[in-house]
Structures are given as C-alpha cells and as structure tokens.
Amino acid sequence: MKNKFSLLLLLCCVTLLSTAQDTLKLSHQEFLAIVKNYHPMAFRYRLQNQIAQAEILKARGNFDPVASAKNGAKTIDAVNYYEETNVALGIPTWYGIELNGSYNTIDGERLNSNETPGGLYQFGITLPLAKNLLYDKRRALLDQAKFALQMTEAEQWLLTNNLLQEADNTYWNWVKEYEIFSLQNKAVNINRDRLTLIKKTFAYGETAAIDTTEALSQLQSFELEQQDAYLQFVKATQELSLFLWKPDQQPYDVEQLIIPPQTLDDNEANSNYMLLIEGLNTQPINNHAALIYYMQKQNILESERRLKFQSFLPKLDFTYNFFNKENYNVKYLPLFQNNYQYGVKLEIPVFLRQARADYQIAKTKIRQNQLDADFKRQELNTKINTYKNEVLGYQNQINTAAQNINNYQRLLNAEEAKYSNGESSLFLINNRENKLIDAQEKALELKLKFVKSYNQLKWINENFNIR
Predict the structure, then answer these.
(1) CA 154 to chain centre
(2) Burial (CB count within 10 angstroms: exposed 0-12, middle 13-18, buried 19+), residue 76
(3) What is the pLDDT of residues 281-336, one digit of tens each?
(4) What is the per-residue pLDDT across 181-202, written as a single tens digit (0 to 9) for each?
(5) 50 and 104 in one domain?
(6) Together in a domain, 18 and 126
(7) Other C-beta atoms within 10 Å of 446: how many?
(8) How many CA atoms lie less than 13 Å away from 311 in the CB half-sphere?
(9) What string of DSSP letters covers 396-413?
(10) Predicted local distance difference test score (pLDDT) of residue 312
C-alpha cells in the first residue's frame, strides 16, 4: 500500500510539474514501478492468479456437507394418506467415504408397507471398496486446482517479467535516442560558433571565401542530422508512452517533452554484469519459472492419470444404515442384529475399452509434457550462455570503441591546432569531426546492445525468484 501511494504521489507530481515547465524527467526506477503497478497487462496477470485461487475454493466445495429438508402431505376425499417431514445431512470425506444422517417422521392412513410410522433416526455410511477408494474425482479436482494455482503463478510471473523486460529495453532505447539528439545538438552549436568565427576571419582577410561555404555546408549537414535525431527521439518517446498508465488503468497522455535524467553509462549493467553472470552460474535451472510451470503441469497430468486408472477397478460400494425409532432405546452393537439396512453394489465394465483409451491418452500427455520440459530446459541453457557471451563481447567492443573515440578526438584537436597555424584546411577538420561523431554514435549503439543483452540475463535471473 505504501508503494502504491508513493507511485500515485509521483504521478500527481508529474501532473503538477507539467504546468510549471516544458520538460519533465522520468527515471528508470520510477518508470518500471509505474509499469509494474499500473500497466493493464500486469494488472490482468494478477487477476488471473485470483481466478486460480477461486478454482481451489470451487474444488473444495465438492467436500462441503449438504443439508436438506422436505415436508409433504397427501389428502384425497378427506382421507389423510400421509404427512411426512424429513431432515437430512450428507458429509463427504477425503477418502471417498460418505457419511449421512437424517430424521424422518411420517403418519397417515394409507402408508406403504415399507414405511415406518412415527419418528425415525438414521445414521449411515457409504464405503467404496475398489474404485474411488484410493483416489476419486473430488480429490483429483482439488489436487489439480492447487497445482494449477502454482502453474498460473509461474506463468504470470514469466509474462510480467517479459513485460518489464520489454519496458526496460524501450526505456534505454529512449535514453540512447536522447543521447544521440544531444550529441547532434552539441555538434550544431560547435559548427555555428565555427561559422561565426570563419565569417569574422574572412572579413579580416585571414581566410578564403570558400571556407565560409565549407563551414556553412558542415553546419547544414549537422542541422539535418539534428532534425532526424529529434524525430527519432520523439518516436522513442511515443513508444515509451505506451507503458505509462494511471492507477485506474487509463493511458497517461504525454503532453510535455520528457527527457531521461540518466545516460547509458548510468545503467547498472556497467558495474553488475560480472556479478549477474556469476549468480546465474549457481542457479539450479529447475528453479526457473518456465520449468516450474511444466513441473506443475506434470503434477496435473499425473493426477489425471491416477484418476483414469480407477476406471480399471470394479465399482464395489458398500452401504450401511443404522435406524433408531423415536423414544426407543436400542443397542448399536452388534451392527447386523437389528434396526439396520445394508447394500452392496457391483459394476464391472466387460471390455474396458474406454478405460484403456483414457489411460493411454493420460500417459501420452505426460510424455509430451516431459519432452516440452526437456526442450525448454535446453533452450534456457542455450539462451543464458548466448547472452553471457554477448554481454562479455559487447563490453570488449565498448572498450575498443572508447579508445577509438579518444583517438578521433586527438586527431580532431590536432587538426584544429594545425588549422590555427595555417597548416591545415577546414575540409580536413570537418572530415575528422564527422568521423568522431560517427564513432560516438556507434559507441552508443554498442552500449544499447550491451544493455539489452544484460537485460536478457537480468530478467532470466528474476524468473528464478518466483514467490
């Protein structure tokens, strides 16, 4: 409740800030918290768990005692045929045994010969001696509902983390686009100052007229890149807005420019990637939510197989009822001496064709699920190893790219120094500058790829922490 209040306060602050300034800032932590708590798909996943919990309650209802009451009478031509009142209670138990008790009172002038006038108490038991003794449909439904809850929780955990991973990647792509836009802004400002300086030196007769054309051409080139970078940043902002929702699951309309307060260098991946890799190396793969899903599905299928096996057994039910007339003292033992009723019912399918088919289908589904689980296990191991290699590979490339940028910066600085001494040209400066900007943009692309590969590992790791 405290976290929800904090997030609600955050959204209120964002709304108030929008009236006070043109630019808002949205941090990575705040963004993910909004997605997790307010995104309609995340909310829907939580509702699915509630449905699974309700299914358990529904299955428990098969074990609820049932009370019943009946009252009736029949009169024809002033003859009171009968007047009857019956109150009964049936109690199903875990092991297929059913207990029941009733009180029945009947009177009249035309009673059937098997009716007992007056009040009569009855206590009885129905006991399955073969089929449904060790396992029956009521127990199977409850077991399956419990397994289904754990299965649903694992599935919804996976879906929620997939949603958060997608949101995570969208956020850092948005950050990358903003950094490229900022990079182009810086280049435009530098070239504007350079054009102003070239115009002044030309006015003093220190530079050729063609240099002003060269400077203007470079500036216009960067202005085009700046406009394209801005469009890409706006597009990334719109993609980000798809994950911004209010507490009532209504979309949050982004009316002001939103910028990130962080850069790609601020991502936790830069300092935590080795710890994450080491942690994943110690995680038992069977604890992953995807494999927990298959294990719980296996339990459901095994429960169904046990239930289908009961169809091979003959249905042999024994029923015993003890009677006691009202205001009449009687000894309960021995049970088969007086005031009792019993029955034995036997049913045996002759060919067992339906039972054999159902049992074979149940066993085949178990085998199919085992194959699915084996494939998922291998798929997870492959993905983890692939993303580990990507993270380490991109980290090496980023280090190389940083050295390359330093080299291009030194070359640009040297070219500017030579130009100020009259030993170079504006064309060479522009060439060096273009290569530096290209290297910086490529480095940002590498950093984003590194972050996305890290996110793959991070959210795989989160799927081991199912609660």
Answers:
(1) 7
(2) exposed
(3) 999 999 999 999 999 999 999 999 999 999 999 999 999 998 888 766 666 666 66
(4) 999 999 999 999 999 988 988 8
(5) no
(6) no
(7) 21
(8) 17
(9) HHHHHHHHHHHHHHHHHH
(10) 93
Taking the C-alpha atoms of residue 276 and residue 203, their distance in angstroms, rounded to an integer, is: 60
CATH code where residue 35 lies: 1.20.1600
Distance from first CA to last CA of the chain, Å, rounded? Answer: 18
Are 458 and 393 in the same domain? yes
Round to whole Å and give the CA distance between 286 and 460: 13
Contacts of 312 (CB under 8 A, 6+ apart): 352, 355, 356, 359
Longest dimension (CA), the chain: 136
HSE-up (13 A, CA, CB side) for residue 120: 18
Q: Is residue 180 part of a domain?
A: no
> Do residue 389 and residue 274 come from a single domain?
yes
> What are the tens digits of pLDDT across the range 427-449?
899 999 999 999 999 999 999 99
**Pick from 408, 455, 358: nearest CA to 137:** 358
Query: Distance between CA 17 and CA 273 in Å, rounded?
Result: 35
CA torsion, points 208, 214, 219, 225, in degrees to nearest 10? -170
Q: Please provide the DSSP assignment of 198-225 as one string.
A: HHHHHHTTSS-HHHHHHHHHHHHHHHHH
Q: Within this chain, do residues 150 and 256 fall inside the same structural domain, yes or no?
A: yes
pLDDT value of residue 422: 82
- Are 450 and 415 in contact, with CB atoms under 8 Å apart? no
From CA 457, how far away is CA 455, in angstroms rounded? Answer: 5
Span 3-9, mean pLDDT? 40
Q: Measure Cα distances from 309 to 93, 225, 312 in Å.
A: 21, 71, 6
* Residues 322 and 368 grouped into a single domain: no
Number of domains in the chain: 2
Q: Per the domain annotation, does 230 fall within a domain?
A: no
What percentage of the chain has pLDDT greater than the value 70? 93
Residue 16 CA, chain-centre distance (Å), reads: 33
**How does strand 257-259 pair with strand 118-128?**
unpaired
